[in-house]
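Hi U.,

Before I forget, here's the chain from the pilot set. I'm dumping it here mostly so it's searchable later in email.
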Amino acid sequence: MLNQDLKDIKKYYGENMMHLCRELFPSLLEQEGLLFRIISDHFDYSKLLYDDIIAENMEEEFKDYIYSFIDVEKDRIVTNKTPKELLDEAGYDLYECHSEHDIQSFRKYYDEDEVLCTIKYGGRLNRCFVFFAVKKDAENIKRTDFKKPKRQDEYGTSVISIQFRKGQINTVSIKNRYNHTVNNPDATFGNNLDSIILGLTDAFEREYGFNINSSYSDFELNSYYLGSDGKFYKINYEVDDICFGSNNVLLENGRPNKLDKARYVIMDYFVLDKVEKTIKICNEDLRDTFADTIGHIDKIEEFVDKKTKERTIVINDKIKIVVDKIGVIIKYINEDITEIDDNFLSYNPCLQEIEIPNVTKIGNNFLRNNRIMLSFKSEKLTEVGEDFLYMNTKMSLLKLPNLLRVSDNFMYESQIDHISFPKLKYIGDHFMCENQLLSSILFLPEVEIIGKDFLYKNIKVNQVIMPLVEKVGLDFISSNSIIESVFMPKLKKAGSFFLSGNKCLTYLELDSLEEAGDMFLRDNKLIDTIILPKVKKICGDFCYRAFGPINIELPEVEEIGPSFLSNCEEMERIELPKVKTIMRWFLPRCKEIHEVILPEAIDVCGEGFLRDSDKKKIERFYAPKYLEKISDEHKPKFLKELKLKNKHIT
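Structure:
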């Protein structure tokens, strides 16, 4: 038969939690009312607590945490002595750490595999006040003398770190010298300073102004927040010092505020007032426009699924919002809305389904942190802002047949394997950057402008068909090694690293290209033929380490940047009939080159010209306008070398 404690635990924390408590705390259950009071004093009512403790393997830590409160009602000893004086009586020297250097000075007391996280990882002073207490004879207390270490044996307590969390409640953690080689080393002396020497809690409070809960252990649980009342609350979000709890609780700067469930519903970081018929954001600084899409509320209906505990809220008979058991919005249906402004549910990670069939335009940060939505369809959507579904990695179906424009960071982390945007014209920066699953053919029939990092690091697209594109930015499908064909007949300007890193492309013809950025076709190992009939400007490192180009047609180029065709070892002949300016490092390490024809060149930088190429193989160097411009005595070194070795240079 259950005693009253177990009945209350079952009622407020669930049956599984009741079974766990019966297993962990048999002795405490002998004192009626004690266990439930300790748990309820330190954990808000939640039937999810058991699941979260088990999921994180925190059973032992939870047990130690509860046991640490057993002596909480003992009278605290008051003293006029300082912490330093009291610890001196207990045989310790006390040190306060003001810097990371101070903390690191105590590393010498720990074996390599027992160094405190405080020391190993640093940064502890950002959230804690850190002290070390060292026994006066600590150097003589040897680890090897303790074959079966215990948390509070002489060695373990010969060097202790006493840490107080910063905040309204300065909870204490006493860490011993064994670190993680004994059970719960972060709760030495039960984290009760008076267990080291009576009066120490009071001394620290007086000396440093701390507000100490002496029975608190260094207990942490993911998605739980310690309120100023000493209770842990399960939270869904923490944004700008406001926590949004799963039990209709708001915590602002740690102060809990429980909202009446009969009147209010917390949905994500919004509060629905069923009496006043309003939806308000809890933190105006967030500027999320979810509430704006609801508009004026005349009618609210609410349905709760008894099995899943999901709550369905129907507004004005048309708008449907589904909230899961912890208060997170997981479904949204609104057939009336036609435009969505910036930051719509931008912090929500768990929306599973959205139906907005009449939306034509979406602003920035739309579902930016969503991670799990599987499909998104919108027949009328024409424009989306920055960071659209930025972090979603689960999307498998994306149907936007009338989309015309996407801004920066469109589905930045997506791993979708197929897209179809038949009317898309403009693409911003970082479009589906890091996507490694997009299928083999990339067909964007109407796109005209593409920003930087388009499909950066995609590894599966092997054909590019963009008949209308005129401009692409930095890193256009760079780091993709398998592209075999490119059809971009109207491309006029290509940013740096265009198709950089490709290993399969052998032929490239861009009939309208006028400017090629730095590192154009860098590391394209198999490229054989490049035809750019209208290009006028080529920036630095054109075809750097391409090795293979043999046939290159650049009939209109006027300006050549540095390191042109560097390392193109099989290049034999180059003719640039209209080039006027050539910068340094022209044709370096082109070991087979034997003919260079530059009839219109007037400005040739001699630095690095044909460097490390075999000048003995040069049979013809034709640059009459350049040669006429300079006298023999001012001719650069490369011309002198060519003339000395080959009398047919013209």
